[in-house]
Amino acid sequence: GGCPDEHYVCRFVAPPECVHRANFGAEVNTLCEPSGRATTSRSLTSSSKTEQTGVIPPARVVSDWKRLGAEVTAVEEKHTDREKMLAYQNGDIVWAKFGINEEELAPYLPPGVRLDEGEAVAWIVRWQPADFLNSWGSLGKVGPELFEYNELWVEVPVVIAGARYMYPLTLLLNEDVGMIAGRDMGLPKKLADATYTFVPAVADDARVSVDVSRRGAPVYKLTGRLGAKAKDIVPVQGVSENSASSPGVALLASVTFAYDPEISRPTWLCPHSVSNVTEQRPLHDVEVEFGSDPTAPLGRWFHKTATEAGYLRMDQDWLLTMGGAQLKLVELDGYLDWWKRSFALQYM
To answer: Phi/psi class of residue 180: alpha, beta or left (left: φ > 0; alpha: ψ in -120 to 50)?
Structure first.
C-alpha cells in the first residue's frame, strides 16, 4: 500500500499498522484508523529503536578534530541540500498567537526590557534536518553534523535599547546537543516530551494535535484542523518574517549562575531570522490548554484563546544585525532579582 504522509518513507508491517521513519533514522510510529487514515506521532523524547527501515542516506567514514581524530560514520552532507544555504530545513511548523497577561509576565522580563504592542506566539517545529553546528563564528566549518528534532518556541514582543525584538521566554526540545549549543548562544532551552500529530497527513481538513510536557507537568496542548493551502505567503511575526523592519530575536548570551552580577551578566545577542516558506495553511477550530507549573507557566502569562493560528513548511537560518541592544550588557540594576524570579524557568 501507499503511505498517507508524503514527507516519510513507509513500510507496512502488518495491517492495520505501519512504521514511518524519517531520514537519518528518526522514528515516527503510525496507527491506521478504521477509516484508513493514519496518525503520525512525533515524539520529543530521544528514545528510538536501533533497527532501520525505509531509505537511509549514504554514509561515509570521517575523521575530524571534534572527535580527536577518531573515525566515525557520518551522513553525506549533500542530503542537507546545502544549495539552500539555510541551516534549518524542511520544518513542519504549527504556530498560534495569544494575548498577554502583562502583570503576570512582566516579572520574567530582564531589566531594561519592556513589553511592546502585539501578541505572544508559540510555535512547534520539527526540523528535517538541522545543521546548527555550522560555520557561525570564527572557527570555520564545524559540520557535517546533522540533527532531526522537535522544538517549541514561546516568544513575546519587547523593546530593548529603543529597538523592537521578539524575546524567547523558553524553548523546549528533544535534542540534548541542540539544547547545549542553543544555551551557549543565549537560547533558554530545556529538554521536554511531546506528541505532534497530523491525521492523516499535512492536507486539507487534517486534524492537528500538539501536546508538550516536561517531567510529567503539562506545558502546552493545542488541537485544530488544517485549512486549504494559501495562494500567497504571509509573514508571521516571530516565526517567518524576513523584512529589515521586522523584529529580530533578543537572546541573553549566556545566562550563568549570578555569582557576581557585576562581572557575570550576560550580553544581548540579537540575530535576525532568514526564512524560506514553501507552504502555508490556516488552522481552524483551535483549542488550547496551558500548564502553570513554575518551570513553564504559560497559563499565567497568556490568554487561553488563540487569536490566530496556522501551519508553515519552512527553511530557516540566522543573520546578525547591529544597533539596538546588540552586544550590550544586560542592565545591572535589577538583574539579580530577575535571575532569582526566573530561576525555575531557566534551570528547573
So the answer is: alpha
